[in-house]
Amino acid sequence: MNKIGFNVLAWSAVVSDELKPIIERLGATGYDGVEFLIGAPDEKAYKQIGDYTATLGLETTAVFVLGADYNPIDPSATVRAQALEKIKWTIDRAYDLQAKVICGPFHSAFTTFSKCAPTEQEYMWSAEVLRQAGDHAAQAGILLTPEAVNRFECYLCNTMDQLAYLIDKTAHPNVKAMFDTHHANIEEKKLGAAITRIAPVLGHVHISENDRGTPGSGHVPWDETFSTLASINYQGWLTIEGFTRNDPDFANAIGVWREFSQPWDMAENGLKLIREMCKKHGLV
């Protein structure tokens, strides 16, 4: 059974009490769960928000990224060890949130480039870190779902072919793959073919428009996307991820320089799109 979630990054990258009215309204709107960024160091905040979200009958998922000092594919063994510890810390915070899924491009450091194409050694380093992180995630009952993102944000995994290769090398039951329609819109030839390629290890899906605005307002081929998800019998989360400039520090960090849509337009009309597509293509 597919559950529908919304990522609160449209409002804030910081987990705090300020998100409570937003979480409550997302529940009232009809969402099954809420996705949070794990990044801020206030450890207590994650458990408090996780407990609050659960009292509303909502589930949680989590997303995070790694910086250059925590790069799983850095030539330095010390940096790679720091990356593993950072991922473990994130798993612990996700456990506090009561999240069962962590997604994001944590196979390598965000916007950190070697000025070369990915190497076999880098895939091996990433797989080694992810495999050890998978052991920690298994103890917490959490699934790790690394994400392929566009060429402007990473170079190790831009496509489902590259991500499938990495997941195969990792070979851990708690490490699957994530598919994001925004990034696929940039990097893949056909979204349906990309979904089919990653289907055996697909663990999480982000529903995101080509410009990061309201799903259904742009040119992502939603019929192709949902019909393919139905054909592979995908049963995981369908989580909307859209960005705004509501949190300037976060927006500046990811290059969001204008408003694509207002958060509640994304949430309300995005949910309507997902429900219509699920019904049309038999995805339940």
TrEMBL record:
Annotated Xylose isomerase-like TIM barrel domain residues: 27-252
MF annotations from Gene Ontology: isomerase activity
UniProt keyword annotations, A-Z: Isomerase
Gene3D superfamilies: Divalent-metal-dependent TIM barrel enzymes
SUPFAM superfamilies: Xylose isomerase-like (SSF51658)
Identification of the protein by name: Sugar phosphate isomerase/epimerase family protein
Protein's organism: Chitinophaga defluvii
